[in-house]
Amino acid sequence: MMETGKGAWVIRSARSDELHLLAAIEIDAFWALYDVGAVACEPTSLPIDVLQRSLAERLLFVAVDGEDRPFGFVAGIREDGSVHIAEIDVVRRWQKKGVGRGLIEAAVAAARAQGAAGVTLTTDRHAAFNAPFYASAGFRILDDGERPAVLTRILESEVAHGADPTRRVAMALRF
To answer: What is the pLDDT of residues 5-15, one digit of tens each?
Structure first.
């Protein structure tokens, strides 16, 4: 159990009865991105089938408070031998407390334990709590020539849904 000024928290595997709670966490966290200009679209949340897949692949983790209520999550999915972080979110009042780092560490540990080649994600290039944060955790930006096709498709989809193409990048942590 970790302790911050907001109280005690822990990261654990998500349960199927918590999937319905994750959209609210994702939408709350969206507004932090919106406030720094990283997104200009309306908030959306991961489709339930992606969350179910992440849960089935044992790659869905939640951060919970002292009363076991989720306030953050990371959803990974297996893609081309790696684990792709489909989503990571922490509600704004719990941000900047080490929760996001703990969630990334849980996803990386699970990827290693499952024999994945590494972990990938797409993110905003400029927001301090995006690409610079992931770089501090060992991820690096992939240029066009080294980016797998699946990440290119994800970036294209994000742009089609309103993300700024000059700000979106794919990153990887290879094992």
So the answer is: 556 899 999 99
